[in-house]
Amino acid sequence: MSRTLVELLHILAGLAAAAALTSAIAWSYPLGAHVAWWCGGAAMVATALMGVRPLRRAWMQDRGA
Q: From the CB of residue 22, how many other CB atoms can be counted at a distance below 10 Å?
């Protein structure tokens, strides 16, 4: 369970960082805020997708398979 939890925390940290950066970018450049949120959303989706394989591998290791 510990490996799986660590992987989940890494994914959540990446999503939080992407959200914080996107928010800062949207705040600093209001004219392009909608574009910043679209790009930030794409980065968050990519972060989640890139975390699936390591999460699955950690889950399998925790199960002992």
A: 20
Q: Token digits for 26?
A: 């949207």
Tokens of 41: 């959303």
Residue-by-residue DSSP string for 7-64 = HHHHHHHHHHHHHHHHHHHHHH-GGGHHHHHHHHHHHHHHHHHHTHHHHHHHHHHHHT
Phi-psi region of 24 (alpha: psi -120 to 50; beta: other; left: phi over 0): alpha
pLDDT of residue 65: 62
Q: What is the tens place of the pLDDT at every residue in 6-58?
A: 999 999 999 999 999 999 999 999 999 999 999 999 999 999 999 999 999 99
pTM of the model as a whole: 0.88
